[in-house]
Amino acid sequence: xxxxxxxxxxxxxxxxxxxxxxxxxxxxxxxxxxxxxxxxxxxxxxxxxxxxxxxxxxxxxxxxxxxxxxxxxxxxxxxxxxxxxxxxxxxxxxxxxxxxxxxxxxxxxxxxxxxx
Length: 116
Prior knowledge:
The protein contains no helices and eleven strands. The protein is mostly beta strands. Strand 4 (33-38) and strand 5 form a beta hairpin.
């Protein structure tokens, strides 16, 4: 099983960013994908979840309206897009596969830096 994420991104405040997470080694539609981020010096923050099988989504309330999850089953790839970026969105973004109530596999992380 592997989750491979896209590379680091640098954006200006107010811009958008889209991070990908390509899954391999298992049936993509059988497991939820969660997105988690970690800002410098902070703990992990759960962003939400997507069910690749039916497209069901849960967003963290804090990010509602600025975050969008999608999943392309033809390429086994999940995406997170965050708009209206602020400096506080600077973080390492991770995708993780969900098994029951735990994460068993993680992507390698994608650094997103928001700076003018």
